UniProtKB/TrEMBL annotation, chain A:
GO molecular function (one): ATP binding
UniProt similarity note: Belongs to the ABC transporter superfamily.
ABC transporter domain: residues covered: 26-260
Key words, A-Z: ATP-binding, Nucleotide-binding, Transport
Gene3D superfamilies assigned: P-loop containing nucleotide triphosphate hydrolases
Highest taxon of source: Bacteria
Annotated InterPro entries: AAA+_ATPase, ABC_ATPase_HisP-typ, ABC_transporter-like_ATP-bd, ABC_transporter-like_CS, MetN_ABC_transporter-like, P-loop_NTPase
Cytoplasm in keyword set: no
Leader sequence residues: none
Protein name: Amino acid ABC transporter ATP-binding protein
SUPFAM superfamilies in UniProt: P-loop containing nucleoside triphosphate hydrolases (SSF52540)
From TrEMBL, chain B:
Gene Ontology CC: one annotated term: ATP-binding cassette (ABC) transporter complex
Record flagged with keyword tRNA-binding: no
Protein name: Amino acid ABC transporter permease
Residue span, ABC transmembrane type-1 domain: 177-371
Pfam families linked: BPD_transp_1
GO biological process, one term: amino acid transport
Cell compartment(s), UniProt: Cell inner membrane; Cell membrane
MF terms (GO), sorted A to Z: transmembrane transporter activity
Gene3D superfamilies the record matches: MetI-like
Topological category with respect to the lipid bilayer: Multi-pass membrane protein
Family: Belongs to the binding-protein-dependent transport system permease family. HisMQ subfamily.
Length: 267, 384
């Protein structure tokens, strides 16, 4: 992890750079969701400021993935309000499209389009959703592939890349839409250990650009380094939230203490 | 844990002399080894191999005798008609290909006016040209749709006539191979897009559309094609107001399209279901609209997955067009059947059916080979 430490170490004050005074990038207000009779999100309220980096952790089945998937409506919530970049999520398809244009998402299983080359994966949405000219979209894609350090793979198909490379392409693909907010749903959980670092490095680099980010992850090292705030969820509710120091060194609740001890034992 | 990793990363010892790679022993690979392993591995296997080889050789010799050596390729035609005594004297020891020599134009073109046979012949060539062009991937662009439209209009003009100084030929006189090609080409070209819409509709979240598509598939699939053809030819005109009449061929064509689309829709739906949910979610998360998602992400992958069953259905459909004989349309098979009604040629069904089967086989086998190529080519992205 030395490389990530170095990168973050260059600007130690960046962790507090979140602008909490402006309008929130994401606002969740008493959000509730049920799968059938199972109550999976209970009164979730969360404010994410512009440029804030929030890490969401918690045991599996705690609703963390469901929560961030509600933000771009891959899941539908049944009660409460979700406001993204000033637009309220509703059944109105136009506002949903507008929100999805501004919110990039990275999945646990990459979900690259296997029949398209890496470059086409990155340019498809800018060309068809942003109506960007092809040349421009390709230049932009190459620029982002450069930043995630795999420009030489642009003409290959996703199946020809390693897991870590695929996930970096997925990040580049999301960034090509120039989103204001990035959601990460356990981006390193499906990776072999030696590939986790290259993806985390990419995420740290992204955090340094001032991107608003919500990351569901079990990488506590990453949380300590870049998170402005760590949110701990369990059984569909937010149990504790605070700066990483407080969450990791001074947990208030029994549930968080148990979770942390399990996580630390596991590593 | 650390030790294991360290060990795994140390390079293995390289053999001393990489210049002389060892070859596998001759008796373990190569054709001789294959024969020994597969055909002569034990005395039972050897006995079975020899017995079957004998039967195959006997049959092959018999076939060559019948089809080539003893065959009669033409017979004299006098004013009383063709003189087939020589053929009859053979008593099935040899094929009487003279029936094909005499009747091939009837089999290919049916009752189309004799002196105008060049028109359906040109149509058959146009169809084949259309298939060849469509099979080449570098022509897969929007203009191909225009080429199809133009070719089909041209074929219509040639067959009907009444334009450019061509004499008018009513549809009742069309027949033979060209009918089979018309029914199957239009059938596939229209049923395939329809089936995609039905498959998408069946997965729609809108209950009315979903119900409509389910009803369509279940109703059409629940009845035999023959009954649909009967309905199209007999019942459908009863519901039309006096004086309104659609061409019989057109009605049969519509029945075939509706029938094939129901089957194809289920094949396409299978492909849609086989795609991981993540592909839909990734496309949604990027903000692609429904049609963009379907057109760029979902269908290209789903259809690749179902190329074998799709072509299976296409081939089945190509041969199913022969069922139109029951409503009196003169397709390739019916033309062949009719050719041997003439007293002089009665009893030479084997030769005619053999020739007709060969024509069907050529088209079906071409489809099959092409689909295998296409599958390999389109799925190259899956090869590492």
């Amino acid at each position: 992890m030395s490389a990530t430490t170095d990168m973050a170490g260059q600007e130690p004050q960046i962790a507090s750079a979140a602008r909490t005074d402006g309008p929130p990038a994401i606002l969740l207000d008493k959000v509730n969701k049920w799968y059938g009779s199972m109550h999976v999100l209970r009164d979730i309220s969360l404010n994410v400021a512009q440029s804030e980096r929030v890490v969401v952790c918690g045991p599996s089945g705690s609703g963390k993935s469901t929560m961030i998937r509600c933000i771009n409506r891959l899941e539908q919530h049944q009660e409460g309000r979700i406001v993204v970049d000033g637009m309220e999520l509703s059944d109105d398809l136009r506002s949903l499209d507008a929100i999805r244009r501004e919110v990039g998402m990275v999945f646990q299983s990459f979900n690259l389009f296997p029949h398209l080359t890496v470059l086409d994966n990155c340019t498809l949405a800018p060309i068809w959703v942003r109506r960007m000219p092809k040349k421009e979209a390709e230049a932009l894609a190459m620029d982002y592939l450069e930043r995630v350090k795999i420009p030489e793979q642009a003409r290959k198909y996703p199946g020809q890349l390693s897991g870590g490379q695929q996930q970096r392409v997925a990040i580049a693909r999301a960034l090509c839409m120039k989103p204001k907010i990035m959601l990460f749903d356990e981006p390193t959980s499906a990776l072999d250990p030696e590939m986790i670092k290259e993806v985390l490095d990419t995420m740290v680099m992204l955090a340094d650009t001032g991107m608003t980010m919500i990351c569901v992850t079990h990488e506590m090292g990453f949380a300590r380094q870049v998170a402005d705030r760590v949110v701990f969820m369990d059984r569909g509710e937010i149990v504790e939230a605070g700066v990483p120091d407080q969450i990791f060194n001074d947990p208030k609740t029994e549930r968080l203490k148990t979770f942390l001890s399990q996580i630390l034992r596991g590593h | 844990m650390a030790e294991i990793t360290a060990e795994a990363t140390t390079p293995r010892e390289v053999p001393e002399s990489p210049a002389a790679p060892r070859r596998p022993p001759m008796l373990a690979v190569g054709p001789i080894a294959w024969l020994r392993a597969n055909l002569f591995s034990s005395w039972i296997s050897t006995a079975v191999t020899l017995a079957l080889a004998y039967l195959i050789v006997r049959w092959a010799i018999g076939f060559v005798d019948w089809a080539f050596i003893n065959a009669i390729w033409s017979v004299p035609v006098t004013e009383q008609g063709p003189q087939t005594q020589a053929c009859r004297a053979l008593d099935h020891a040899g094929a009487c290909w003279a029936v094909i020599t005499e009747k091939h134009r009837f089999i290919l073109f049916g009752t189309y006016p004799y002196e105008e046979h060049w028109r359906p012949a040109l149509c058959i060539l146009l169809f084949i040209g259309l298939y060849v062009v469509s099979a080449m991937r570098r022509f897969w662009r929007p203009a191909l749709g225009l080429i199809w439209l133009a070719t089909l209009l041209l074929i219509g003009g040639l067959m009907w006539g009444g334009v450019f100084g061509l004499s008018y030929v009513p549809q009742e006189r069309w027949g033979g191979l060209v009918i089979t090609l018309i029914l199957s080409t239009f059938g596939i070209a229209l049923a395939f897009p329809l089936s995609i819409l039905v498959a998408l509709g069946r997965r729609s979240r809108m209950p009315a559309i979903k119900l409509l598509c389910v009803l369509y598939v279940e109703l059409i699939r629940g009845v035999p094609l023959i009954s649909l053809l009967f309905m199209a030819s007999v019942m459908f005109p009863l519901f039309l107001p006096e004086g309104v009449n659609f061409d019989k061929l057109l009605r049969a064509q519509v029945a075939i399209i509706l029938f094939a689309a129901a089957y194809l829709a289920e094949v396409v739906r299978g492909g849609l279901q086989a795609l991981p949910k993540g592909q839909y979610e990734a496309a949604d998360a990027l903000g692609l609209s429904f049609w963009q998602k379907t057109g760029f992400i979902i269908l290209p992958q789903a259809l690749r997955l179902v190329i074998p069953p799709l072509v299976n259905t296409f081939i089945g459909m190509f041969k199913d067009t022969s069922l139109v004989l029951i409503i009196g349309i003169f397709d390739l098979l019916t033309a062949g059947k009719t050719a041997i009604i003439e007293p002089a040629w009665q009893g030479f069904g084997v030769e005619v059916y053999f020739a007709v089967a060969l024509i069907y086989f050529i088209f079906c086998f071409a489809m099959s080979r092409y689909s295998q190529n296409l599958e390999a080519e389109l799925n190259r992205h899956r090869v590492r």
